[in-house]
Task: inverse folding
């Protein structure tokens, strides 16, 4: 029987539908993994028109049918009442559709119908306007599936995680606590073990300029981050730091470390996007099933123009397929 990897189209007014159309027109074709698109058939039809493709699809009534061995991508319709077309704007209806789709996916995951999920870019403002009561998609999936989810990002051989994520910058210092830093280090270490890296080496970023310069520019490195690193090392994790944020990534690129644990969102994301904008992947770790997405947004400015590249979504599918085949130990 196939493993089932669900693929959703994200925000209907972003680039997601056209990216999904291109992916299923030339599917990756991993043996033993069925790629199943779930969503509004009219949105998929519109995405195919924008991309200029006519993919071959098996139309299924239920996700359970995707277990049958067949290399052709499948489609399970999930109609939603909202205008089709009109790309490039924030819509509460589109946000509501994303929330409803994720609820459907979560129910399928809980009943064992799917083994992994890749979702095309979504818009957090639209989700909030559509009824999401706070937090990002990691918080949403934690509520829907159980677990303690956190984002891990990847580009090529470089992995990053972060202690804080989608919060105002003014709140970051207060959220960088010993327990939060420890969780970030352990999550990254366990994840790398799960994807087959036998001896992960982690570089941990500082919070303040120059790693605090001995306390001159802040004491978080002395009082919070360094003790958490020491505790991780005492538990057997190969972690070093805190390194100044402006020099930690060159150490990783030189091959000394597998991953960087950053303190807040932009410490890691700016570096990854400079290395390859549009090609990075976000993994939501700590959940019962592997979940991944492209490391970029809805790109409303180019949505509907047929020029968006699918590199990031293709990489997300490849990573999630690898995790789905591995089936389990890599989500800690």
Result:
């Amino acid at each position: 029987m196939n493993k089932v990897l669900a693929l959703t189209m994200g925000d209907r007014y972003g680039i997601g539908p056209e990216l999904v159309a291109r992916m299923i027109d030339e599917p990756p074709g991993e043996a033993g993994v069925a790629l199943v698109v779930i969503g509004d058939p009219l949105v998929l039809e519109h995405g195919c028109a924008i991309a200029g493709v006519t993919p071959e699809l098996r139309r299924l009534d239920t996700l359970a049918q995707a277990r049958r061995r067949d290399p052709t991508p499948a489609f399970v319709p999930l109609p939603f009442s909202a205008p089709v077309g009109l790309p490039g704007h924030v819509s509460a209806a589109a946000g509501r559709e994303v929330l409803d789709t994720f609820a459907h996916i979560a129910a399928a995951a809980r009943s064992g119908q799917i083994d992994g999920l890749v979702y095309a870019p979504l818009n957090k403002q639209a989700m909030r306007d559509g009824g999401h009561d706070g937090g990002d998609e990691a918080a949403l999936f934690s509520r829907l599936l159980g677990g303690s989810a956190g984002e891990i990002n990847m580009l090529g051989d470089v992995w990053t995680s972060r202690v804080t994520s989608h919060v105002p910058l003014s709140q970051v210092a207060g959220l960088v606590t010993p327990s939060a830093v420890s969780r970030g280090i352990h999550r990254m270490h366990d994840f790398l073990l799960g994807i087959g890296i036998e001896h992960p080496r982690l570089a941990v970023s500082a919070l303040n300029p120059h790693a605090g310069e001995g306390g001159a520019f802040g004491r978080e490195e002395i009082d919070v981050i360094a003790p958490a690193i020491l505790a991780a090392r005492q538990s057997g994790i190969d972690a070093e730091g805190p390194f100044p944020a402006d020099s930690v990534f060159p150490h990783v690129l030189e091959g000394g470390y597998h991953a960087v644990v950053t303190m807040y969102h932009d410490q890691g994301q700016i570096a990854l996007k400079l290395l390859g904008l549009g090609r990075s992947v976000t993994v939501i770790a700590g959940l019962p099933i592997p979940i991944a997405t492209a490391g970029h947004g809805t790109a409303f400015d180019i949505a509907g123009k047929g020029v968006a590249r699918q590199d990031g979504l293709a990489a997300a599918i490849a990573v999630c397929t690898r995790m789905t085949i591995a089936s389990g130990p890599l989500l800690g």
